[in-house]
Structures are given as structure tokens and as C-alpha cells.
Specification:
By secondary structure, the chain is of the alpha/beta class. The chain contains four helices and four strands. The protein has a four-stranded parallel sheet with strand order 1-2-3-4, with no helix packed on it. Strand 3, helix 4 and strand 4 form a beta-alpha-beta unit.
């Protein structure tokens, strides 16, 4: 809810590093997060480590990746439920990140 209040409209030019905590194990939660992140086109780093992501909850984020083309760092580490299926979901969205230099998994 705090994020939704901060990013109510597009913030062009603002470079943002975002570290989130909590559980994002529901596709509804990650779809809401993706819709909020559409207003942060200059997102540079996104840390979703230890957020209980699953393949199904990762899917809405991957669909929203097209709005995060400036992302340089993505941390999905310690989301043990992602497994191989989650890596397949992630692979589908990696082409949206031409500037991605750091991807943390494991």
C-alpha cells in the first residue's frame, strides 16, 4: 500500500533502487506490484530476495518487465519455491532487460 501511494503517477527520470520484503507468493500480489512499478520506468535495481516467490506469482511480474527496460540489477535469491519452473518463467522475460548486468539467483 505504501508503494502504491508513493508511485501514483509516472516518475520519469527518477532512478530508483527498490528492496522489498514480505511475501509475494500470490499472483494477485505480484500483479498489483507490477502495475505499481509501471509508474517507475527508471527502476534501476529490484531486490525481491526472500519474498516467497513461486512460478505462478513470478508470472505477473515477468509480464510487467516490459515497463522496466532500464533495470540493471534483479535479485531473486532465496526464493526456493521458484525451482526450474520459475527459471522457465523468468527466461521468458529476460529479453525485456537490455541493461541487465546483475541477476542474483539461488
Amino acid at each position: 500500500q505504501y508503494l502504491q501511494q508513493c508511485f501514483t503517477s509516472p516518475l520519469a527520470g527518477l532512478k530508483v533502487d527498490l528492496q522489498l520484503s514480505g511475501k509475494f507468493d500470490s499472483p494477485d500480489q505480484t500483479a498489483r506490484l507490477a502495475s505499481i512499478l509501471k509508474n517507475v520506468p527508471s527502476l534501476r535495481a529490484l531486490d525481491l530476495s526472500l519474498t516467497a516467490l513461486t512460478p505462478s506469482s513470478l508470472r505477473p511480474l515477468v509480464r510487467g518487465f516490459s515497463h522496466m527496460s532500464l533495470l540493471e540489477e534483479l535479485d531473486l535469491s532465496e526464493n526456493y519455491d521458484l525451482g526450474n519452473a520459475g527459471m522457465e518463467v523468468l527466461q521468458a522475460g529476460l529479453s525485456s532487460f537490455p541493461h541487465l548486468a546483475v541477476l542474483r539467483l539461488g
